[in-house]
Amino acid sequence: MVVVGAGFGGLGVALSLHRAGFRRFTVLERADGVGGVWRDNTYPGAACDVPSSLYSYSFAPNPEWPRRYAAQPDILAYLVRASAVVRDRIRFGADVVAARFGGGRWRVELADGRSVGADVLVSAVGQLSRPLVPRISGVERFEGPVFHSARWDHAVDLRGRRVAVVGTGASAVQFVPAIQPRARAVTVFQRTAPHVLPKPDAVRRGAARPVASRAARFGTWLAGEALTALLTSGPVGRGVVAGLAAAHRRIRVPDRDLRARVRPTTRAGCKRVLFSNDWYPALRAPNVELVTEPIAEVTAYGVRTRDGREHRADVLVWGTGFAVADFALPRVTGRDGADLAEVWAGRPRAHLGMCVPGFPNLFLVYGPNTNLGGNSVLTMIEAQCRYVVAAVRHLAATGAASLEVRADVAERFDARLRDRLAGGVWAGCSSWYRTRDGSITTNWPGLTWEYLRRTRRLRLADHLVRAEG
Ligand SMILES: Cc1cc2nc3c(=O)[nH]c(=O)nc-3n(C[C@H](O)[C@H](O)[C@H](O)COP(=O)(O)OP(=O)(O)OC[C@H]3O[C@@H](n4cnc5c(N)ncnc54)[C@H](O)[C@@H]3O)c2cc1C
Questions:
Q1: Would you say 106 and 65 are in contact if contact means Cβ atoms under 8 Å apart?
Q2: Is 367 close to ligand 1, i.e. is its CB under 6 Å away?
Q3: The pLDDT of residue 324
Q4: Which of 54, 125, 366 for mutating ligand 1's site (highest number of atoms within 8 Å of CB)?
Q5: Helix 377-398 to helix 448-455 angle, to the nearest 10 degrees?
């Protein structure tokens, strides 16, 4: 068995297999450490925005989270610790470039020319691993350091420097307050103002007992479901969220002019609703300027906006998010030579976000339409881990060679999903949730509860079970 990726997804699968008694699996990871996005996003202030009790595996609770919303170093340390038991199953520096099914098995090819055989292949390559840098003319002329928040250059000392930050999404909302006290000046370029809610963060006093952790987990899951319900239910629910965000702005931004500029122009839920107590205070700081005029170009000494003004800067930081990954390995060839990219034709889709007809024994983790706008992605990932283990168990118990989702089942699932998404909050919005042609390939349209129910057991009737490859 081969699992590709050692982020929360791949490690979750490996740990679940290990807990179920399976030992014959290998995790292939192209980087030199575990953690996925939590290894790569080391920007100042990086933290999760769902409570830590829910942003950790249910089977490996951490009663010692130092904060209610853990910071990146704590999340990474947790993942390293939690995955120690499968550490010897992980091959680092293994960049998978292709996988091909033939003769009843997968052959997984690495960039260095080597290959690995597998009966079952799990692709857990993440959705948010490719930093997105906008095409703005003149960037190459800029004389200072330029980097993306997901590849933070810690060698650049920001003390006393003028920093230009492009973007006001989830990462910028975290790192701008963290760098503002040390920078001489921070100029933040905003295209779309986010809806920001207060973050009920707190430093933990003492470790909670496991039972308290379980209760906390359930409570935070319910709160996440409630937020998701508000965002996905219709205009009334979204109005409640927008109202709460507006009240937060009124309290935190007394200055009317600034308040007008941070007022979102998109519906609540179009993009991820953000949580922060220090974003607005940072924007109010005397050394911070929020610029809403569109960017025209980057110059040698700063950023020029369309009104002709040049905003001088010594360092340029992209807080511009990610190009959503393709949900699977670079090149996947299934039964009868079917090419996954061609099958998808620009619209990634999979039954329950995991299984694709024509691709036996292939499971995608955090695959198409399994991202969430209001709850912990780990809820979805864990459901997928359980599903993969159930499939592997079935193969092992029956001696069957492969499972492959039936085309009619996958098509019905997809059609129903499209219907629901078409009437949902993300239709008609412009965000990373949608592909260029407008398809919503990232998000799950309902509550996680529904997904948990639908993936609770492996429905054999949904699959073709073959005795031989
Ligand atoms: C800054 C940031 C903050 C976030 N905060 C939250 C949050 O608060 N709550 C929440 O629910 N979600 C959050 N997310 C979403 C997050 O992506 C998921 O929660 C989760 O961490 C995804 O885990 P993953 O294993 O699927 O993907 P990743 O963490 O991206 O891991 C994928 C791994 O696969 C490896 N890989 C990729 N391609 C290959 C290949 N070809 N060969 C070998 N290895 C490969 C990568 O190197 C990486 O290690 C956040 C994301 C980011 C970027």
A1: no
A2: no
A3: 83
A4: 125
A5: 0
Question: Are residues 331 and 415 both part of a single domain?
Answer: yes
What is the whole-number distance in angstroms between the Cα of residue 408 and the centre of ligand 1?
31
Do 192 and 239 belong together in one domain?
Answer: yes
Of all atoms in ligand 1, which is nearest to the CA of residue 10?
25
Same domain, 187 and 213: yes
| Nearest alpha carbon, ligand 1 atom 27 | 126
Amino acid at 403: L
Atom of ligand 1 nearest to the CA of 110: 42
Contact indicator for 344, 357 with CB cutoff of 8 Å: no
What CA–CA distance (Å, rounded) separates 255 from 422? 38
Q: Token pair of 469, please? A: 């490859």
Res 469: pLDDT: 67
How many structural domains comprise the chain?
2
Q: CA nearest 311: which of 321, 301, 320?
A: 301
Name the domain boundary from 318, 336, 359: 318
Q: Which of 318, 353, 385 is the last residue of a domain?
A: 318
Same domain, 426 and 344: yes
Mapping DSSP to helix (H, G, I), strand (E, B) and coil, where does residue 192 land? coil
Is the same domain home to 147 and 271?
yes
Q: What is the pLDDT of residue 132?
A: 93
3-state secondary structure of 320: coil
> Residue 82 is part of a domain; what is its CATH number?
3.50.50.60
Q: Note the helical H segments in 253-351.
A: 256-261, 279-284, 340-344
- Quote the pLDDT of residue 317: 98
The parent domain of residue 260 ranges over 139-318
Output b/e per residue, 145-176; b: 16+ Cβ within 10 A: ebbbbbebeeeeebeebbbbbbbbbbbbbbbb
Q: Same structural domain for residues 420 and 337?
A: yes
Regions of the chain with pLDDT less than 50 = 206-207, 209-210
